[in-house]
Design a protein that fits this description.
With 238 residues, the chain is α/β, with parallel strands linked by helices. The protein has nine helices and nine strands. The mean pLDDT is 91.
Length: 238
């Protein structure tokens, strides 16, 4: 096993039988072991939740059953938490049940924004999330927003009070996104990393190489702050 790195994974789809996940617990366990060997010590499971396809209650039941099957097979020195990645749709934040999908011990809810032109209804949904549900968004795979949305929209999203921004490890190691990450970190915004893990090891990027590239792009102080803040995220507090 490689030396213990302070790496936390906030985009993990490895729960068996859930949307985007492997079919069987043995495949999920292989995925998690590979991540641990690569240096990931902490992970938040974020199976995709699509509003109106099933109730939050039913989703949580299936998620708990998937975790019950996987838990005995997880690396003993790996800390994991259960959350979800909510696909934001019109009126999905109107129900208070959505709070059950937040990252445990926090008011953060991972959300996936539309992979299309930024819709007008999204402003209202984010308003509901922040002010009626009292939840803060974690914008999942935020690099996609930077690619798809006009700069004015990306700037507006980056200015939301209390919001967090999750980048994939591969994207965070690319010069195209390092400017935005540096800007967020200098404003003391919460930036989180994610592997997107859902299949066995051969699909994963070389984490050590990606982390080294990130260190060069972000400068060592910002890089260390990013890893430290995500590793010590409130959901991992004892």
């Amino acid at each position: 096993m490689q030396p213990r790195l302070l790496v936390a994974d906030f985009c993990n789809h490895a729960l068996p039988g859930m949307h985007d996940g492997p079919n069987f617990a043995a495949e999920s366990a292989e995925t998690m072991r590979a991540l641990r060997e690569a240096g990931v010590c902490r992970a938040v499971f974020t199976p995709t939740y699509r509003p109106f396809f099933e109730s939050v209650r039913r989703f949580c039941q299936r998620r708990q059953e998937a975790f019950r099957c996987l838990h005995p097979l997880l690396p003993r020195d790996m800390t994991v938490r259960l959350s979800a990645q909510v696909v934001l749709e019109p009126e999905c934040c109107a129900s208070p049940e959505i709070a059950a999908l937040a990252i445990p011990g926090t008011s953060y809810l991972p959300v996936e924004l539309p992979l299309a032109e930024y819709p007008d209804w999204m402003d209202f949904e984010l308003h509901l999330l922040l002010h009626r549900r009292q939840l803060k968004p974690v914008f999942a795979k935020f690099e996609r927003c930077l690619l798809l949305y006009p700069e004015s929209v990306s700037a507006k999203l980056m200015d939301i009070p209390g919001a967090a921004y999750q980048f994939s490890l591969s994207a965070a190691a690319e010069p195209a996104f390092s400017r935005a990450i540096r800007s967020l970190l200098r404003q003391e915004k919460t930036v989180l990393l994610g592997t997107g893990a859902n299949l066995p090891a051969q699909k994963f990027p070389n984490l050590a190489e990606k982390l080294a590239a990130m260190r060069e792009l972000l400068t060592p102080p910002l890089y260390i702050a990013l890893l430290r803040n995500s590793y010590n995220f409130p959901c991992f507090s004892d």
